[in-house]
Write a structure and sequence with these properties.
The chain is an alpha+beta fold. The protein contains 12 helices and 12 strands. Helix 9 packs across helix 12.
């Protein structure tokens, strides 16, 4: 993995300057057991595929920083942080989880929850990608739990590291059309890394059948003529038995189909905004399997709390950020 060497030329600043600037860019954090007289650190701003970014370097005696309940309450920042380990090792504590990050690993932490981060070496480098909660959850279709992490080695992890490390090495932003594609790629790579796995099938025939039905629905949910009767017919079972398989698992077949359609609609709305496509929102509704736009709007509002048009406007207002600690 490439290492950034141009950060060394960034001016070192003292404890008060560094702490104030970190809070401005990343929110309220507290360095623990640090002597302000011997502290020195670096902090800079950069761009990752058009997303506002901040790179920070902790050195000397700063081995721990934390974000407390009080910091969360006073800050009121509602976003996630994807923490990339650039050099050294770190230990992150959040939501009763303790994860140890080595070079190339990535963790997803919730800025709306307290967090503690430790390192044995004060010169450890981390790169932090800040993403607004509503944007991330809407795009991924699920709400990640803070404190999750993934080891290096996966394809998605390697690709994502290449993107953020290129920014650290001076790659910066390309141009608006390219950046728009890259922003979508960053969200999708995070989804590939942190998506909850499908329930594992067991040897029981009913579970195997249920997993096969889910696969059939995922292949055909965008067809407006596809519903529970068609799913039952495709699986070769009765509609009553199909409904029983879902209710035993706390859901319904109809809810599962609408969930897939709305998740796809959010992805297409994000793509429409980022690529400045003039496609009508009604066309997106139809492409996701909704025959009636009013019905689509009602389902969308019930799921996300606002209209499809408001989602696009919210995406324009909410911008992701990146930082390295």
């Amino acid at each position: 993995m490439r290492q950034s060497d141009n950060f060394a030329s960034t001016e070192q600043i003292d404890y008060e300057q560094w702490n104030d600037l970190l809070r401005l860019l990343c929110g309220r954090h507290n360095l623990v057991d640090v002597d302000p007289n011997t502290f020195s650190g670096r902090l800079r701003s950069l761009s990752v595929s058009g997303l506002t970014a901040t790179a920070t370097d902790i050195c000397c005696n700063a081995h721990r920083f934390e974000r407390t309940h009080r910091d969360v309450r006073l800050d009121d920042r509602d976003h996630y942080n994807a923490v990339f380990q650039v050099t050294g090792q770190s230990t992150i504590h959040q939501n009763d989880q303790c994860v140890q990050l080595a070079l190339g690993d990535v963790a997803l932490v919730d800025a709306a929850r307290p967090i503690t981060c430790d390192s044995d070496d004060g010169s450890v480098r981390r790169l932090i990608l800040h993403l607004p909660r509503r944007s991330l959850v809407s795009h991924l279709g699920f709400e990640p739990r803070g404190g999750a992490f993934r080891r290096s080695g996966t394809s998605a992890g390697r690709f994502l590291h290449e993107v953020v490390l290129d920014a650290l090495n001076g790659g910066g932003s390309a141009c608006p059309p390219v950046d728009s594609f890259m922003q979508l790629a960053i969200y999708d790579l995070l989804g590939a890394l942190f998506a909850p796995p499908d329930p594992q099938p067991s040897s029981r025939p009913a579970n195997k059948l249920f997993m096969r039905i889910r696969g059939l629905i995922k292949d055909r949910f965008a067809d407006p003529d596809f519903g529970p009767p068609e799913a039952a017919a495709a699986a070769g079972i009765s509609l009553r038995y199909l409904q029983k398989l879902f209710t035993q698992r706390g859901s319904t077949c109809t809810e599962f189909i609408y969930s897939l359609r709305l998740n796809q609609a959010v992805r297409l709305l994000d793509r429409r905004k980022l690529l400045s496509i003039s496609e009508p929102i009604s066309a997106i509704a139809y492409a996701c399997g909704f025959r009636d736009y009013t019905h689509f709007g009602r389902k969308f509002r019930h799921r996300f709390g606002y209209s499809p048009g408001a989602h696009s406007a919210a995406q324009i207002r909410g911008q992701g950020q990146v930082a390295s600690v």
